[in-house]
Every structure is written in C-alpha cells, then in structure tokens.
Design goal:
This protein has about 180 residues and is an alpha/beta fold. The chain has a single domain, classed as Rossmann fold. The chain contains 7 helices and 5 strands; from the N terminus they run βαβααβααβαβα. It is globular, with a radius of gyration of 15 Å. It starts with a strand and ends in a 5-residue tail after the last helix.
Length: about 180
C-alpha cells in the first residue's frame, strides 16, 4: 500500500497548520515545495518565482515533488504532503498548455485518497511567500478539484473546523498500518 497522503486544495485553506498538527502527533510530514522554492529564490535573488516566471517555478516544484515522493518511500507509517506532484504539474499545464498531467497518470502515485482544503476566506493570509490574491487561490482550487479525479484519485473535502478536529477527520479515513 502507498503510504504517501496528499493534502492539497486552496492556498490559505489551512494545509500547513494541519501538517503541523499531524507532525505534532508523530506523523512524518513534507512541507509544500512552493514555499521552499520561494524562500530559496528570494534568498538567492532567483527568478523561479510564481509571480516572475511561473513555468520555471512549476518545473522546480515538479522536480522537488518527485524527490520528496522518492524519499518518503523509505519511511514507515503515513507521510503527509503539503501539496504534491499533481499540484505542480497542474500549475505547469495551466501556465504553458503542456499536457503534463497525462504523463503522470501511472507514475509517482500517492495514496488513493487526496484531502482538499476548500476556500476559507477567514483564514486566508497574504504574505511574502503567497503574493496572489484569494480569487487566484480559488481558481487554483477549482483546477485541482478537477485534476485529482481525472488522475484517478478519490477526493475528500476537509471540513472547515478547528485543526485538531480536522486532523481527526483525516486520520479516521485512513486504514491502520
């Protein structure tokens, strides 16, 4: 069984907070590639930023997500990902028109159920690493709600509840290892 679980969805929907809670409970977690790339690019005056060169940013995110997925295979127990390869490939496809998603259909699979955070304006925060607005975040969410099922994943929308209850909800939908 694949033990790599993707938590995706709307930017600013509480994914990182949920990952922190899962980590606090002893689960392995992987930070979102996009945030790591933005920090690296800003520190080094790079141009692979989503607001400068979205295609270069998405290509870096694809490479990072592949490496993250590969490293997670050696872990025991569940590993939870803040976004994954499908997110990055979907962004590249939306930016360039390249048919990236279909090339991934049977490669680098994650657990069959993907958990999506819906748009949640009350928790959305604009910061130095997230420079797009809420409307762009909702458009991204809409794109992902289509992309994951097209790639053969079951999508479960996470409820807008306190983080502990959200973690309980997610964990209750996974089989015991």
């Amino acid at each position: 069984m694949i033990k790599c679980v993707v938590i995706s969805g709307c930017s600013g929907g509480g994914k990182s907070t949920l990952l922190e809670e899962l980590s606090r409970r002893g689960h392995a977690t992987v930070e979102e590639p996009g945030r790591r790339i933005v920090r690296e690019e800003l520190a080094g005056q790079g141009a692979a930023l989503p607001w400068v060169d979205p295609a270069a940013f998405a290509r870096r995110a694809i490479a990072m997500a592949c490496e993250d997925r590969k490293l997670a295979e050696i872990r025991s127990g569940w590993t939870f990902f803040d976004r994954g390869l499908i997110d990055a490939a979907s962004a590249l496809q939306a930016t360039t028109g390249e048919a990236m998603l279909e090339t991934l259909r049977d490669r680098h699979r994650y657990y069959q159920t993907v958990f999506l955070t819906p748009p949640w304006p009350e928790v959305y925060v604009h910061d130095s690493e997230r420079q797009h607005g809420f409307e762009e975040a909702v458009a991204e969410y809409d794109r992902l709600t289509k992309a994951y099922p097209e790639m053969g994943y079951e999508v479960v929308i996470l409820p807008r509840v306190a983080v502990a209850a959200r973690a309980d909800f997610l964990l209750s939908r996974l089989p015991d290892l």
